[in-house]
Amino acid sequence: MAFTCATGKHRRPSRVKRTTTNAVGVAALTTTGVIGALAAPAFAAGTPVEQTGLIRAVSMGDEVAAKIDAQAAAQKQAAELKKAEEAARKRAAEKAAQERAAKVRAAREAERRRLNAFVAPIFHSYVSTGYKTGGSLWSSGSHTGIDFHAASGTPVHAVGSGTVVETGWGGAYGNQIVIRMNDGTYTQYGHLSSIGVSAGQRVTPGQPIALSGATGNVTGPHLHFEARTSPEYGSDMDPVAYLRAHGVNV
Ligand SMILES: [Zn+2]
Prior knowledge:
Layout: H1 2-31, H2 40-44, H3 54-116, E1 127-129, E2 146-149, E3 155-157, E4 162-169, E5 175-181, E6 186-195, E7 202-203, E8 208-212, E9 222-228, E10 236-237, H4 239-245
């Protein structure tokens, strides 16, 4: 009995203590009028944290913290997404700008090449009389240019970029055009049936400037073409070598 009692005594205090603790806890809660406030509906109704007691307040604090954490995470994610989208937009815009710039550069380069290129004055033709060919037909005693085979009315083209410096009647050359080329040399086109440009006009490679003919001192229609170091007669140079030096296949 004593043993049991002892045991009981041993156990009892702890039970009593627990009970007492519980009772005190409930009493404490009751005195603050929190029991009713602990019901979930009261929380749903938005009971202020200060009136809900410590236990519930801690629990709600966790919920709020979790909500805030989740909200912060969502905001952070949204901000990161926005940042990534902006970066992607920026990259796409930069790429588009680079592509536009590359296109402009390529177009400029193509135009530069086109303007620096040389062509034959008569397309799909051939040299029918060579440079320095002797004969009584030429006042100098020899041919100061080359003749391109061409029926009357065949389009004559500027061989390269330049500025027209002279148009009109050129005596033995008939109707002629003289162009100062961009590299400082001159080209001359003779025996024309019609002239399509005027002095001061800028021309580009292959631009039609006249129609071929048989004006001046000729035995038949053709284009007389000269390359010169100056606009004057007598400053001629080898037109075939000149055209070939500029990449023209003659
Ligand atoms: Zn000639």
